[in-house]
Write a structure and sequence with these properties.
This protein is α/β, with parallel strands linked by helices and 558 residues long. The chain has 2 domains: 255 residues, Rossmann fold, CATH 3.40.50.300; 261 residues, P-loop containing nucleotide triphosphate hydrolases (Rossmann fold, 3-Layer(aba) Sandwich). It has a 6-stranded mixed beta sheet, sandwiched between helices. The longest helix has 27 residues. Helix 2 packs across helix 8. Strand 4, helix 4 and strand 5 form a beta-alpha-beta unit. It comes from Takifugu rubripes (Japanese pufferfish).
């Protein structure tokens, strides 16, 4: 628990002055808002009130304790009211800094705050000072209900606060509550971050030296687990040590608090400046991810790639996702780009009512143009699509990750593959295993991604994470979802609607933004086009890069 890396996996600034000045000088650009409203939520005893006190301490330059806390978890949440904390400016006691925090009753498995109350708070319907009723949620017409909230009343940033120590057990029921709240926030376009507290109580190395926060192997493990379990991108999760027993300020305690606070303000201000939900057909002036002007470099990278690990002849990529997501279509598109002509080896079907068209576990190799007897060194495995009550068994996909499913195995809809079955590989080699897991998600509304399907995907991703298999996501059918992309594929990364889809995927499935790629498959296009090739090649290059690092790690660990 006390082991550390030699180098921090996230750097803290050498000097806190830049972040402190940024926070103190911040003013919302939206004239309808005087202060950014941040809502902290999480389990009882997570350290929400302490984080408010810590921010107050950093900005005041001295230890404060306005938000009352209690370490007795047996009696439930110490916070009983919905209270907004503004922080007084040192230079003028009659004015406040332009960021404020709302504290709320903590989450518990069978008691604590009602999820519906938190969702009402997000919308601005909960008045400041409202005392939460443990027996029933707030209703329209109640004294604490605000029937006509303005933008200032609403929440602008939602922050999940999670403790790193074992004093609070985060049960599946509590996770489900938090995910329901996060989905509601996502529907409102509210940006979300997470703060992991009590690292000093969880790890002796951090207790001895706060600068070890981002060196602690134990906290990195907790960090990665949170990303998977609650669906946070890693760049939206921050470690802090609250001021709970110190009597004076310390730069190394201030630093992570200020880094988290700066990011909270940054994403909140972006939210305030773009209140209108993205609609289909709208574009931004500049793409949020640049495509290369020429595809030659990425194409050469893919074609010349060879695994450095001598035990592997080709990188094995497993595509998984809902029925009709475009997995087979993506395989055909990669084949098309590499062959230089339209191909269709992986059969696909647009009739979703009959379930998945893919029935077998099949590995697709791509023949080299220069030598029909050899193949490029990346291959794709297609698998039965996920459905709510039928389709692929999650256990089958996890067995495939481990290399236990033989190529050509025909999946049984009645029962998953078992040891001793004909299609079971009892002794998989590294070549048999999956080296990269890619989630394929459609952007159009033809496939409804239900909570049950999301849970299946997250279970698969957790298993892959336990095996340290790198993971990415591909969003397909952007041209079918957005008219501007249908007219011009170069609008893929300009479409507001598709950017919204990407952000939602980050939350629901828990994949970081830089691991999500938009593509348009070659399904109705009769000829090769550079602007269709470009996003496919960008995704393919990243898949190979991630997979190659995984193979090298396997070799180093032998």
């Amino acid at each position: 628990m006390g082991k550390t890396f030699s180098q921090p996996w996230r750097e803290m600034p050498k000097n806190n002055r830049g972040n402190l000045d940024y926070v103190k000088k911040y003013q919302p650009r939206n004239v309808d808002v005087q202060h950014l409203r941040v809502l902290l939520h999480g389990p009882v005893g997570a350290g929400k009130s302490s984080f408010i006190n810590s921010v107050d301490s950093v900005l005041q330059g001295e230890i404060t304790g306005r938000a009352l806390t209690d370490g007795n978890l047996v009696e439930g949440s110490f916070t009983k009211k919905y209270k907004n904390y503004k922080i007084t400016r040192q230079s003028d006691p009659n004015s406040h800094y332009c960021v404020s925090f709302n504290d709320i009753v903590g989450l518990e498995e069978n008691r604590g705050v009602h999820v519906d109350d938190i969702i009402l708070a997000l919308k601005g319907h909960v008045r400041d000072g409202y005392k939460f009723n443990p027996l029933s949620p707030l209703n329209e017409g109640d004294e604490g209900y605000n029937p006509s909230p303005n933008l200032q009343d609403r929440v602008h940033v939602l922050v999940s606060v999670i403790p790193a120590d074992g004093a609070v057990m985060i049960t599946d029921e509590m996770v489900n509550k938090m995910r329901k709240i996060r989905r509601a926030a996502s529907d409102m376009g509210i940006p979300q971050l997470a703060i992991i507290t009590k690292g000093d109580k969880a790890c002796p190395a951090v207790k001895d030296k706060v600068e070890n926060l981002y060196k602690s192997k134990y906290l990195k493990q907790k960090f990665d687990g949170l990303c998977v379990r609650l669906g946070f991108p890693s760049n939206c999760v921050f470690l802090v040590k609250n001021y709970d027993k110190e009597t004076s300020l310390k730069d190394d305690v201030d630093a992570p608090i200020l880094c988290a606070l700066r990011q909270i303000i940054s994403v909140g201000d972006n939210f305030l400046n773009d209140k209108t939900r993205a609609v289909i057909g709208q574009t931004i002036s500049q793409p949020w991810r640049e495509m290369p002007a020429n595809n030659r470099e990425n194409l050469d990278f893919v074609k010349t790639y060879q695994p450095r690990n001598a035990d592997v002849q080709h990188l094995r990529v497993l595509l998984h996702g809902p029925v009709g997501a475009g997995k087979s279509g993506f395989i055909n598109s990669v084949d098309t780009v590499l062959q230089g002509e339209i191909t269709g080896r992986a059969l696909a079907d647009g009739n979703l009512s009959e379930g998945t068209f893919t029935k077998k576990y099949k590995n697709y190799r791509f023949t080299r143009q220069s030598d029909p007897n050899s193949h490029y060194c990346v291959s794709f495995n297609d698998i039965v699509g996920l459905e709510e009550s039928r389709g692929a068994h999650v256990d089958d996909i996890i067995l495939a990750l481990k290399g236990h499913v033989r190529d050509g195995y025909e999946f049984n809809p009645s029962s998953p593959l078992k040891e001793g079955d004909e299609g079971y590989n009892p002794s998989p080699t590294l070549q048999d295993r999956v080296h990269v897991l890619v989630s394929v998600i459609p952007a159009d509304g033809a496939v409804i991604i239900t909570d049950e399907m999301v849970n299946k995907m997250r279970k698969i991703r957790r298993a892959a994470s336990d095996m340290e298999i790198p993971q990415l996501a591909i969003i397909t059918k952007g041209d079918k979802a957005c008219s501007t992309v249908n007219e011009n594929v170069e609008n893929l990364y300009k479409s507001k609607y598709l950017k919204q889809k990407v952000d939602e995927l980050c939350v629901t499935v828990g994949i970081p933004l830089n691991c999500i790629f938009l593509v348009k498959n070659y399904d109705v296009v009769p000829n090769i086009k550079d602007n269709v090739d470009a996003p496919i090649l960008c995704a393919l290059r990243q898949i190979i890069s991630f997979g190659e690092r995984f193979l090298n790690d396997q070799q180093n660990n032998m």
